[in-house]
Write a structure and sequence with these properties.
The chain has 319 residues and is α/β, with parallel strands linked by helices. It has 15 helices and four strands. 64% of the residues lie in helices and 7% in strands. It has a four-stranded mixed beta sheet, sandwiched between helices. Helix 11 runs antiparallel to helix 12 and helix 13 packs across helix 15.
Length: 319
């Protein structure tokens, strides 16, 4: 066969394989920010209609229902009233800057996220930008929501992108993790399983975003990173987790579920700090591949692996 024909066929197959190879990507929807910024009076006078109109705000309502957090409009109404007086459209520019940043750094962002996931994981995440919501960022299924109006960002693109990496990582992680955290535990055993699952899940996402600071430095960092770098704060986070698990019985699971939120999620951050530290220890001692392999195993194994690598003061008590 003609060698030129062979080269042509080889090139065609290579292109076909490249086309068929699944890729991870993030798409962005800032339509809610555009509308609210340009029509603040209407968006405020017709809050319910505005939130029903845009998927990002619908997802925020879903978050409130799932987390049992009341009054989803309280931040929106207060901040939007002030926006009308200030006539500030900088949030539209901020959202545009984030999308431009991703376009320019897409390969680095995706490569970093997927380094910490099993090789066969790929997904298309949909990022919705909103303004003035109670949660500043969260992920749900294949979507993530970022409040570009949150004062926390100080309109710092690198800072928001760092947290966007955290939330995007959750989507890939959940594809392979056997653990599920969206349920109400009925027994102590179920409660412990859920707590350990959240620790691994949030800990991994926090550690991945922390490591991303080497690629995209930011003078503003999430406060969890200070805890990760401070041994006394790590020990305190683990102490709080151990106390939480020790106090839980079959009879007080519902009460302890609320305490778990206060201790581990907000205002306390024990699950994030301790979980990120566990991931860091495992990576440093066993390597990245081993850390990634643990995603597809029970979260209890993740904790057992960590416990075997640290002094007793840093142990999470499983029994």
């Amino acid at each position: 066969m003609n060698i030129q024909l062979l080269l042509l066929i080889s090139s065609l197959f290579a292109n076909l394989n490249e086309t068929q190879k699944p890729r991870t990507d993030i798409s962005f929807d800032s339509s809610a920010v555009d509308y609210v910024s340009q029509n603040p009076e209407i968006a405020l006078d017709h809050t319910n209609e505005t939130w029903r109109r845009f998927e990002g705000y619908q997802l925020v309502l879903d978050w409130h229902e799932m987390q049992a957090v009341p009054d989803p409009h309280r931040v929106y109404n207060r901040r939007l009233s002030r926006l009308i007086k200030a006539q500030d459209e900088s949030y539209v520019t901020f959202a545009s800057d984030i999308k431009e940043f991703y376009t320019e750094n897409k390969n680095e962002v995706i490569q970093h996220i997927t380094r910490y996931l099993p090789e066969n994981v790929s997904f298309n995440a949909r990022a919705f930008f909103v303004m003035f919501t109670v949660p500043y960022a969260f992920s749900l299924s294949d979507t993530l929501v970022m409040d570009v109006g949150s004062r926390r960002w100080k309109q710092n693109t690198n800072y928001l992108m760092n947290i966007l990496i955290h939330e995007t990582y959750h989507i890939g992680y959940d594809i392979k993790s056997p653990d599920r955290i969206g349920f109400q535990p009925k027994t102590r055993e179920e409660f412990v399983h859920k707590v350990l699952s959240v620790i691994q899940n949030e800990g991994m996402a926090t550690f991945v975003a922390y490591e991303a600071l080497e690629l995209f430095p930011s003078e503003i960092r999430h406060e969890d990173y200070d805890g990760l770098e401070d041994a006394t704060k790590v020990i305190e986070a683990i102490r709080q987790i151990n106390e939480l698990l020790d106090r839980t019985t079959d009879d007080n699971v519902q009460e302890m579920e609320k305490q778990a939120w206060r201790t581990g999620i907000a205002p306390g951050r024990a699950f994030y700090i301790a979980g990120a530290y566990m991931a860091k220890v495992i990576k440093e001692n066993k390597g990245l591949d081993h850390l990634v392999d643990l995603i597809e195993k029970d979260s209890k194994i993740f904790v057992q692996e960590y416990n075997s690598l640290v002094d007793e003061d840093f142990n999470v008590m499983l029994e």
